């Protein structure tokens, strides 16, 4: 029977979706690509099919992911870019030999130089990270408002006011937590004397 692994959290920005293969970084972290096979699965879902992945390639993927996370976080906070992270991102971009292919259906596909080149897939992800961190695309890097998450996400909302990396998980959880806190406050306040300093 296959082992159970946590689901992927897929967004529409490749680089930040990749960074989100590790979630709850400030809480009980959840590793969503713990094995080479899970990296293969994630890449396939994102149109970067490889047929083989070694442990060393998985480790390289983790290093790229953490570098994207670090550089995207620094950008969201308007801090200086961490040099080591920039190095890893650039190295992955340089190593990648994927080609963009235009299909007759008006879509872009990536063709890797060989089906076992995880490095090509990582190069595509690194290039995507470069384009958002360099501010080339319409949107803004921001950090998730959830205190246990703080993931960097790419906000493309018109008002640039998105608060959570993912509405279905972090957003919902925050809403529920706030609802509970309000309920507690309301029940706790009952029977207490009114606040003395009415401003
Ligand atoms: Zn989040």
UniProtKB/TrEMBL annotation:
Source superkingdom: Bacteria
Region named Disordered: 176-199
Residue span(s) of domain Zinc finger CGNR: 140-181
InterPro entries to which the protein is assigned, alphabetical: ABATE, ABATE_dom_sf, Znf_CGNR
Start-end of Polar residues biased regions: 184-199
Xref: Pfam families: ABATE, zf-CGNR
Official protein name in the record: CGNR zinc finger domain-containing protein
